[in-house]
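Minutes, project check-in

Agenda point 3 was the complex the collaborators sent over. CS summarized: two entities, 403 residues total, and the question is how they sit relative to each other. Sequences were read into the notes so everyone works from the same version.
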Amino acid sequence: LERSTSSFSYSSYHTLEEIYTWIDNFATEHSDIASKIRIGYSFENRSILVLKFSTGGSQRPAIWIDTGIHAREWITHATGIWTARKIVNEYGKDRIVTNVLNAMDIFMEIVSNPDGFAFTHSMNRLWRKNKSSRPGIFCIGVDLNRNWKSGFGGNGSNNSPCSETYHGPSPQSEPEVAAIVDFITAHGNIKALISIHSYSQMLMYPYGHTLEPVSDQEELYSLAKNAVQALYEVHGMEYIFGSISTTLYVASGITVDWAYDSGIKYSFSFELRDTGRYGFLLPAAQIVPTAQETWLAIQTIMEHTLNHPY
Amino acid sequence: QMNFTGDQVLRVLAKNEKQLSLLRDLEGLKPQKVDFWRGPARPSLPVDMRVPFSELKDIKAYLESHGLAYSIMIKDIQVLLDEEREAMAKSRR
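CS then shared the predicted structure for the full assembly.
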């Protein structure tokens, strides 16, 4: 197993074990600013881990970032790992990161769907859902981005357990979702939530379950526009942006709708690149450029959150 | 590991809502056969769908018979998966 993060390849894809070992090493090597928290256990009883970045204080306002809720979207976990290292490397150097971390905490869940992710390495690279199973139900897995309370069971989610967008038997029925809900609710001071998916080059905000605009639509539109512009300037990758239901499609029971309805105004969902050729099978050579451009958008959102307390 | 030899990802450009619903119908016509990587959303956005090798002929005939323009985004999924696996092994070495 890797003995330190310095020998870890940030431009390669990794197994769940390698990522969990990296998280241990990373938290050990950067214990002044990073720590590892277990927020729960997956359906198959794997630990659900979160990295906390903090420079002190207690109950500080915080930013939540999650990747990998859909198992096959490997570029998102890889982007999360790269971003974690960027945060510790930039603290004390980069003005935005330093200001953010001097006033706020950052929580990052890199493998939000550990069972599904392990399954993409062991059996089915194109698996999307988690691995939950229930008596009498023939198909396995729930789409973890349809299992949240807001708009649960509505259009854009499916009642059939065999569907890729199966919403599950009830809101937060899945331990992977319940763990995040419990953590964020108990924390009570999360001010921004960024959920990273792939693919199709989009930056979106609520709502997904209805065409109705959110009350903060104008601010979120303007922030998304700035973030997408910052992202574009890195490698020329063009993103579209807007609310989920008007930019992509109606989708119910999704993370960012729940976050927004829970009072987290700055809730965003990324759909990272595929450059129109690879879909979920983005070559590892594109990990670093993808993470580099995404970082500028994340920074834009973090800075806005810092400068607009609520 | 499941093998995806010969499976393709087709990129379909639906001209209108009617064509989008024809694509949505596919999920019912071919349950658990068609895997939408980018689901039918709006005419301005492409629909990407993974089609198992065994279903390719039927699905392409369905698209062509309904005038749905498509291109082959990934010619053989297993080729990309093998490359990905090799890259991981190399990186690990």
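Noted in discussion: Strands of chain A lie at 34-41, 47-53, 62-67, 105-109, 190-198, 202-205, 240-243, 266-272.
Follow-up: revisit at the next meeting once the mutant set is ready.
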